[in-house]
Amino acid sequence: MIACCALGLSAATPARAQQVASSFDQLSAIAHYGDTVRMVDADGREIRGMIYRVTESQLEVDVIKTGMATWRESDIRTIRRRINDPLTNGARNGFIAGGVVGLFAGLALRSTHVGGIVPISVAVYGGLGACVGVAIDVMMTEDELIYDRAPAATSSRSSAPVPPKAYAVSPLVTRDTKGLAVTLRF
């Protein structure tokens, strides 16, 4: 029974798809107020702050140590958002590891003739393992690329820039929505 529970808990893992915006119009669907970001501007400087507002033409960020600042799309090369590791997988993995240790400890303590020592041991060690797993996940963060300005495309025959496509279709996957983002240019 314990093995079935452990297998069931470890089988389901959330899928995360990442969409990288190439315009502020697409970025407005991905980035939200309060997101902690690291940006690289057109001059190559790194800027850290929190997103205040994203529109089709501007990005407003509360920059650490300097306050609010506004950028145009041509001013920013890349934007990375800080995301925290979900706590559920740490709790699940910690519970499984602790439960296995508890199973062996309970089997070793069966000679004490305490009724139900094995399930009690699995529950106690599993709970402790889950706590440790959550504590480790709290410390885990990563940066997710959410904006990357596409370099100006040039033709191999001439140095004149190629006009952008009249349309673009890209996947749109966030915590709340799943679908396609269709961009039309006139």
Q: Which descriptors would you attach to this protein?
A:
single chain; 186 residues; alpha+beta; SH3 type barrels; 6-stranded antiparallel beta sheet; two-stranded antiparallel sheet; 8 strands; 33% helix; disordered N terminus
Describe the structure.
There is one protein chain. The chain is an alpha+beta fold and 186 residues long. The radius of gyration is 25 Å and the shape is elongated. A hairpin with a 4-residue loop joins strand 7 and strand 8 (178-184). Residues 1-16 and 153-160 have low confidence and may be disordered. The chain has a six-stranded antiparallel β-sheet with strand order 4-3-2-1-5-6. The chain has a two-stranded antiparallel ribbon with strand order 7-8. Among the domains are: 19-84, SH3 type barrels, CATH 2.30.30.100; 86-139. Helix 1 (2-11) runs antiparallel to helix 3 and helix 3 (87-108) packs antiparallel against helix 4. The chain is built from four helices and eight strands.
Describe the secondary structure blueprint for this structure.
Layout: H1 2-11, H2 24-30, E1 36-41, E2 46-54, E3 58-63, E4 67-72, E5 76-84, H3 87-108, H4 117-139, E6 141-148, E7 167-173, E8 178-184
Antiparallel strand pairs: 1-2, 1-5, 2-3, 3-4, 5-6, 7-8
Low-confidence stretches: 1-16, 153-160
What is the helix content? 25-40%
Number of strands: 8
Strand order of the largest sheet: 4-3-2-1-5-6
Provide the structure class.
alpha+beta
Distance between the termini: 62 Å
N-to-C series of helices and strands: HHEEEEEHHEEE
